[in-house]
Amino acid sequence: MKRNRKNTNGFEKWGGYMEAKKTKLEQQFTEKATDDSNHVKSQIFKGISIFVNGYTLPSANELKRIMMENGGVYHHYHRPNITTHIIASNLPTAKLKLLKQFKIVKPEWISDSLKDGKLLNYENYLLFIDKPNQPKIDFPVRAKNASEPTFLSEFYNNSRLHLISTMATTFKRLVNDTRKQNQTDYPGRQRLKNWIEQNRVKNMLFNDSELDNDKIIMHIDMDCFFVSAGLVERPELRGLPVAVTHAKGNLSKQREGVDRGTEFNLYVKRWRGDDDENDEEEEAHEIRPRSTKRDGINETDSMAEIACCSYEARKVGIKNGMLVGRALKMCPTLKLIPYNFEQYKKVAHTLYTHILNDYTLDVEAVSCDELYLDCSHILETTKASPIELAMFLRNEIKEKTQCPCSTGIGSNYLLARLATKKAKPDGQFYLEPGIVMDFMKNIDILDVPGVGRTLGHKLSTLGISTCGELSALSLQTLQSEFGNKTGLSLYKHCRGEDDRKLNYDYKPKSVSADVNYGIRFQNKEESDNFVRQLCNEVEKRLDDIEMNGKTVTLKLMIRNAEAPKESAKFLGHGFCDNITKSSSLTKSTSNSRIIFQVVNKIMNQLDIDPTELRGIGIQMNKLESRIVTGPGRIENFISNMKSEPKINHTLVNENTDNDKIILTKVSKPKSHQSSSTENINKSKSVMDFFKPKEDLNSKNQLKSSNSKSIVPCQSLVNIKMSQVDPSFLDALPADLRLKLENELKSHENLNSTFIENQNSPIMEVTMTEESSKLYQHVQIDKMKEFIEEWVVTENEPKMCDNIMVSKYLCNLISDAKTEDAYEIIRKLYRLIKNKDDLAWKQSYFDILKNVQEIMMNLYNAKMKVETTFK
DNA sequence: ATCCTCCCCTAC
DNA sequence: TAAGGTAGGGGAGGAT
Questions:
Q1: What segments bear the compositional bias annotation Basic and acidic residues (predicted)?
Q2: Within 7 Å: CB of A557 and strand B?
Q3: Is the predicted pLDDT of residue A606 greater than 60, yes or no?
Q4: Residue at minimal CA–C1' distance from B8?
Q5: Are A613 and A673 in contact (CB under 8 A)?
Q6: From the CA of A735, how many Å to the C1' of B2?
Q7: What is the model's pLDDT at position A673?
Q8: Residues 454-483 of A with CB under 7 A from strand C
Q9: Which of A424, A509, A632, A813 is most solvent-facing, going by the fewest CB within 10 Å?
Q10: A12, A210, A370, A537: which one is catalytic?
Q11: A684 vs A688: CA distance, rounded Å
């Protein structure tokens, strides 16, 4: 079955498209069933049509086959009036509530019926017994995969790699922000000075020769960070072999479709290369054994990864990244402790603020537990020796965080880093210039930063395993072997030379969101929904840093044809083929809809089978900051809205009218005199809600602004502080309130903005992140109050208010506050029904359309609300 | 020469 | 069961 879909001109035709698609697919099903009529084995499921929701056993594909062969019908989409049964093994509560009125049956109903050769009573297989107040799931809760709407956030909440990555960014930004504050007082330096005065003679650490003109770089690295932070609250485990992991050491369950042996062999084959030539080379040079992390794992060993292990565990050969099953074989007494993300954040924050506030701003953040600092100023002002600084600083960090760290000191980046390796655990090491040559000779090539598995192996095939051996190769040899840049840095680094500068100034070059875990989709709907969520995530991250991206890159992991259907690791990606494809826009954006459109085009062009997907990543490159020129961000946003980027890529059909995505056009005429000026005092818009009702001041301001352009719909830019209802401000969180106040203040003098009212009955929700965030935090009751006032007092609905309400409701739904949204829609319906006005009814349908779209995206179901005014 | 895309590698 | 993310550097090879 092809998934090529016609261009749909954005999303406004989504509903119609869905209908068409349903019919098409069902037609195909019937045709297929007819074609395969010689395979029909029975009519057990005559009259039954099923829709499979979520992950099931047997799989949806299997169930489809069973239905086809036995007289039943399989629906790719849930069709409330046609689908007779929904098949599911588990449903999240939100989904459950929505689908409550339908027959939701466990897949065993199908398999048992098939086994017995007759249709069994589905009532014995209901997923839950409908007790009105508390639907109870009669099934053990199973792990979620990415087809569930809550998967993404749960995954991010539990992913150590995601945490590591986001924390690194967080602290790079913290350094940036702190440096801007221009602080001049460093109390730590004074403490160090005092300590030196009291202890120098006793320490005998001072050495005149250490005071030279070289730059002094210090590298600080917490010792086995996750373990140390975890042991703060479990001191009884100190001194024991400890590892941090998700697993509890249980044996892994045997699952259908898993073949660890086959999967592991594929990895080994890819890693070794397939040709004999390589094998000969390896023997000739006595290559050190290369192990995959799957070594020593059998069918039931735990496949969880060890994120971090204590030095006691390392002594017996356990390493970070090793699988729990194997580690337990090496050390059956290994203590497994769970993650404690909050604690890691706390410790890391303490570490950073201590150094930044008390010692220096010349810090390069590497990660949550690792940083470089330029000691020049500290040493100059305190007259301390590098070792004294290291001892003192390490001691303070240990006191503050209760976690040990190690520090290395050297004249450059590389030497500082290598010194730390030597210092560990819980120590310090100053790699003095005089000993660098000797020191480097014996450094293992794999300890050089930048030399990993692949480069290390390649070097070992050349018979090289230490820096000393590497330094025998000429620059030319290295460059022809590894490329110009890689060759040059190998040449320098093995000699202890490194001219990289500490980078204090963090400027992101790309933003991405990847998930390569839990990706198991039954159909294109599920994968689309998930991709949409990833696009939203990317948009959020771009907005966080106030940047837009100009190139979209899609990264896919697809099950390799030879790989077992199910991965060895539970919900893992298994052995995959990787695909990367990028597409450039004419104008940078952060708009998730545009990103999705691009991504979707690529997906369709690649014709990916959604069931074979194992990983998805979306990346934005060529970042541009949203330059603030002139009046400010909002102004800039409005000018951005005038023309959203066109997609410039061969994949993209030229007929695509991307402008249709944005139906609310904004322009800013220089001296536009509106003909509707006389309406302004009668006209009510959402913004008027922010005004106190009897505020003379605001009336005056409105009058005085009559000379400017006043149009039916004001944008945020037009609101003045004095117009804002104080109770609205109170409803906002403090930080948001401050932001709003500042933005309003900075726009007091701005010209009014004209928002063109579209005649099109179709409305698309496109608001600025700035303004939608504001609405997001309006309390539910406040919003109900507004809606009542709006509908009751307003003659006709305005587009901008429709948009605001839609956006608000969509935000509620995506925040899983579906019930609140439901209540508001009911209220809106009642109000509009009373009003009995065509334009208002249209307004209701427009809003509902947006709501149902997001419902379909998130829950694959519509909200059950009134769809006609009888 | 320099840029772009599609990778791969590395680090935390 | 298990939570295999994310940013940056760079090489190969083709387009400009």
A1: 285-296
A2: no
A3: yes
A4: A454
A5: no
A6: 46
A7: 29
A8: 482-483
A9: A509
A10: A370
A11: 6
Beta carbon of A533 within 7 Å of strand C? no
A585, A661 contact by CB (below 8 A): no
Q: What DSSP assignment string belongs to A265-305?
A: HHHHHHHH-S-HHHHHHHHHHTPPP---TTTT--TTS--PB
**E strand residue ranges, A181-234:** 217-222
Answer whether A307's CB lies under 8 Å from A258's CB: no
Question: What are the DSSP E strand ranges found in A307-369?
Answer: 308-309, 335-337, 363-367
**Joined tokens for residue A501:** 């500068």
Tell me what pLDDT residue A244 has.
97
Average pLDDT, rounded, for chain A: 76
When comparing pLDDT for A512 and A142, which is higher?
Answer: A512
| Beta bridge partner(s), residue A410 | A217
| The nucleotide closest to A648 (CA, C1' atoms) | B4
> Could you tell me the two tokens for A572?
């893992």
Measure the CA dihedral A841/A844/A849/A855, to 10°: -140
- Name the nt closest to A621 by C-alpha to C1': C7
Question: A782: left (phi > 0), else alpha (psi -120 to 50), else beta?
Answer: alpha
Token pair listed for A820: 């609140």
Three-state SS at A654 = coil
**Lowest model confidence (mean pLDDT) among A410-414, A467-471, A740-744, A850-854:** A740-744
Q: Is A428 helix (H, G, I), strand (E, B) or coil?
A: strand
Strands A85-87 and A104-105: parallel
Average pLDDT estimate for A797-805 = 80
Distance A443 CA to C10 C1' (A): 24
CB-strand contact A451/C, under 7 Å: no
User: CA at A707, C1' at B9: how many angstroms apart?
Assistant: 62
What is the rounded distance in angstroms from the CA atom of residue A33 to the CA atom of residue A29? Answer: 6
Catalytic-residue membership of A370: yes
Q: What is the DSSP letter of A1?
A: -
Using the predicted structure, report yes or no on whether residue A854 has a pLDDT greater than 80. no
List strand residue ranges (DSSP E) for A626-684, in order: 647-648, 666-667
With CA atoms as reference, report the closest residue to A413 among A305, A350, A501: A501
Strand B: which residues 350-369 of A lie within 7 A (CB)?
A: 366-369
Pairing of β A428-430 and β A405-410 = parallel
A260 CA → C10 C1’, Å? 34
Nearest residue to A114 via CA among A59, A61, A42, A52: A42
Whole-number distance in Å between A840 CA and B5 C1': 50
| CA gap A184, A75 in Å, rounded | 68
A161: nearest nucleotide, CA–C1' criterion? C5
* Sequence-distant (≥ 6) Cβ neighbours of residue A235 within 8 angstroms: none
User: Within 7 Å: CB of A33 and strand B?
Assistant: no
Of the spans A25-34, A175-184, A580-589, A666-675, which averages the highest pLDDT? A580-589
How would residue A621 be classed by pLDDT, with cut points 50, 70 and 90? Answer: very high
pTM of the entire structure? Answer: 0.62
Q: Which nucleotides of B are covered by protein (CB under 7 A)?
A: 4-12
- The CB-side HSE value for A65 (13 A sphere, CA atoms) comes to 6
pLDDT value at residue A830: 85
The DSSP code for A258 is: B
The residues, ordered by sequence, that sit 6+ positions from A314 with a Cβ below 8 Å of its Cβ are none
Secondary structure of A99-130 in HEC code, one letter for each residue: HCCCCEECCHHHHHHHHHCCCCCHHHHECEEC
* Residue pair A303/A254 in contact by the 8 Å Cβ criterion: no
Q: Return d(Cα A245, Cα A90) in angstroms, integer.
A: 27
For residue A748, what are the contacts with CB-CB under 8 A and spacing of at least 6? A720, A721
Nucleotide nearest to A250 (CA to C1'): C1
